[in-house]
Amino acid sequence: MKFTCVSFSPLCFTVLFSFFFLFGCNQSASDATEAVSMLTAIDKWSIDRITVNDDTVLKDGKPVPSFDGITIDRYMSTITFEEDGLLVGDYNKGTAKTELKWKMVDDQVIISAMDSTVQAGEWMIDQSAIRPDAFVMYTSTQAYDFPNTTTVSLYYKK
After folding, report:
1. What is the spatial distance between Cα 25 and Cα 136, in angstroms, rounded to a whole number?
2. Is position 36 within any domain?
3. Where does the UniProt annotation place the signal sequence (predicted)?
4. Is the N or C terminus of the chain more exposed, i.e. has fewer CB atoms within 10 Å?
């Protein structure tokens, strides 16, 4: 079956408009200024899912069984980016709020401990992974499967 639009019928217009609206409105940040603006514009970002080495291990607040056995049971369920470089996170287990610092370095947001003497792992957000309605932050660690490196990604949405 061949479909052609000889003239712009209402159906063709609707299809084209929908395509551009869906794919044009959720573009990733084009520069550092836009990336920071997108992150700080939302009062509270909520966790959507967590992946370990690209396998989903948490979705909709529920664990997803995985073959490698790594589970994530404590995570920041909501986070807020303050314009002054403060990141405030609320954990899912009801523990006290966590305060971290964030800064834009080239085309990446780096999240780290407030105290520079603490040797905890950093989390990164690539500028290309920041959209007006979602972003992905990730870290690489050997803590789960030494000496192998494990990548943990947290997907947040508004």
Report:
1. 18
2. yes
3. 1-24
4. N
